[in-house]
Amino acid sequence: MTVMQSKYAEQVQRPEDLITANMQLVRKLAFYFHSRVRGAVEVDDLIQIGYMGLIDASQKYERHEGVTFTAYASIRIRGAILDHLRRSSNLCRTTIAMQRKVNVANAALERKLQRLPTAQETAVELNMTMADLDQWSQAFQSNVHQSLDEVYDEYSIWYVSDKGNPEEELSKTELRNALRKA
User: Fold this and answer.
1) What Cα–Cα distance (Å) separates residue 112 from each residue in 103, 122, 127?
2) Out of 24, 30, 42, 134, which residue is the most buried by the measure of CB atoms under 10 Å away?
3) pLDDT recorded at residue 9
4) pLDDT (tens digit, 9 = 90+) per residue, 7-41?
5) Are both 57 and 44 inside the same structural domain?
6) Is 131 or 90 the better-scoring residue by pLDDT?
């Protein structure tokens, strides 16, 4: 049995080329996950995390027959995004699954009733008591994420700097230099 060899030297793609060629894959996966966790995290954050996964994939990819870079990168990107979502969530899988059930029930009731359903209607739809639904609702509330843009406030104690205003610092530096020369 003879093995045919190519007359051409095998071309190894640079990581930069692999990244550039698969950037759209990151966007596609980020938007997919964003649709699943709507409101929990910004799509731009998921895209950035996906790019990190793509970079990691491009650096660790080893060419093997039957394994394309796109397939390998897809797994790494999904993994990076899922890891980020799991790290940033303080809910267990059971709570996340129940939250999904409640959201599906609310959406179905809203279509059926042509209005927002009451908590009582949602509880009946899910075959649970109001007390159980209230407990689950409290558990869902513990997983509220806020974007840094929403949290940031120029006057917040969390963002106070010990340094003065940049313009004042520049003026002081220029004044010191002028005084030294004089």
Assistant:
1) 14, 12, 17
2) 30
3) 47
4) 544 556 788 888 888 999 999 999 998 888 766 78
5) yes
6) 131
pTM passes above 0.85 = no
**Residue 167 forms part of a structural domain:** no
Are residues 137 and 100 located together in one domain of the fold? yes
H or E element at residue 61: none
For the CA atoms of 12, 13, 14, 15, the dihedral, rounded to the nearest 10 degrees, stands at -120
Residue entry with tokens 């509880």:
123
Task: Name the burial class of residue 9, with classes exposed (0-12), middle (13-18) and buried (19+) by CB atoms within 10 angstroms of its CB.
Answer: exposed
In this predicted structure, what is the pLDDT of residue 2?
Answer: 53
Return the CATH number at 122.
Answer: 1.10.10
Distance, CA of 171 to CA of 175 (rounded, Å): 6
The C-alpha angle with vertex 129 and arms to 124 and 131, in degrees rounded to 5, equals 135
Beta carbons within 10 angstroms of residue 108's beta carbon: 13
* AA letter at 48: Q
Residue 85 CA to residue 80 CA, distance in Å, equals: 9
